[in-house]
Amino acid sequence: MKNKVLGLLTVLLTGVLFIAVGVLTAADVPDKFLIQNEGYAADKKGPVEFTHKKHTADHKVACAECHHVFKDGKNVWKEGDAVQKCKECHDPNEKKGNADKLQNAFHKNCKNCHKDLVEAGKSTAAPFKKCNDCHQGAS
Ligand code: HEC
Ligand code: HEC
Ligand code: HEC
Ligand code: HEC
To answer: Is the model's pLDDT at 17 over the cut of 80?
Structure first.
């Protein structure tokens, strides 16, 4: 009898634990951070503050606009998959295969989206022209 109760408790607790872990993973997306890679030939413009959570929650940008793993020309990354640093595929100093060098990968991703939004009249605030709207200056 005692064992049965214990067994049931274990099952219940394991369930609770699973839910807790699930929530943790979903909340694991960092709120905001500095993009500050090392390895550039010269660090001319300095780091960029990026509002990760605001981009997904308020600006409604889908994860796969920024995160990808290409297979046969298609992005097969989906939410929940591990996220590699951009730098692991985009080298800071040279284009490798189809993967642009890191600075260009960031500029294409960040600036192009903002530019398209502004040009479509959907935003006036998304920065793409002034370097220091994103960059914090060389350290
Ligand atoms: C929409 C945001 C955004 C704008 C606007 C922008 N950049 Fe960047 N840029 C980035 C990000 C993000 C990185 C990656 C930073 C890192 O890895 O340290 C980067 C990296 C760089 C780098 C390589 C790292 C370094 O600091 O030397 C250079 C050079 C650079 N940008 C120049 C410019 C110049 C010049 C302008 C203006 C004409 C500009 N950027 C405008 C987002 C932006
Ligand atoms: C507008 C672009 C953008 C969007 C949208 C975006 N991310 Fe990110 N995310 C980034 C950048 C940039 C990094 C930092 C990559 C690096 O350091 O090389 C990052 C990092 C991460 C990391 C790694 C954090 C760490 O500490 O290493 C995870 C996990 C992640 N993103 C998950 C998500 C999920 C899940 C979504 C959708 C709910 C999402 N991201 C939406 C740009 C984005
Ligand atoms: C697993 C390796 C890998 C990672 C990690 C990765 N990329 Fe890429 N990325 C590639 C490859 C390969 C291509 C070229 C795809 C093609 O055209 O075949 C590419 C293409 C791009 C492009 C141009 C195509 C497009 O989607 O518009 C941009 C911009 C880009 N990456 C930005 C980023 C940013 C920003 C990050 C980090 C948040 C990142 N990449 C992380 C491998 C990667
Ligand atoms: C697919 C679209 C998209 C991509 C990719 C994207 N952004 Fe944005 N970004 C937005 C939108 C939408 C806004 C809100 C514009 C407005 O308020 O009118 C924004 C606003 C911003 C702002 C203004 C302050 C803020 O946080 O709201 C900064 C700075 C910024 N983005 C930096 C970046 C950087 C750095 C990257 C690349 C790592 C990036 N963005 C990638 C869509 C994007």
So the answer is: no
| CA distance linking residue 9 with residue 28, whole number of Å | 28
pLDDT score at 137: 82
Distance in angstroms (rounded) separating the CA atoms of residues 135 and 53: 19
Name residue 53's amino acid.
Answer: K
Average pLDDT, the chain: 86
Q: Per residue in 43-95, pLDDT tens?
A: 899 999 999 999 999 999 999 999 999 999 999 999 999 999 999 999 999 99
- Contact (CB, 8 A) for 106 and 119: no
- Contact (CB, 8 A) for 99 and 90: yes
Contact yes or no for 103/87 (Cβ under 8 A): no
Give the residues surrounding ligand 3 with Cβ less than 6 Å away. Answer: 66-70, 73, 84, 86, 88-90, 98-100, 105-106, 108-109
**Ligand 2 pocket residues where CB is under 6 Å:** 28-30, 35, 50, 52, 55-56, 61, 63, 65-67, 79, 83, 85-87
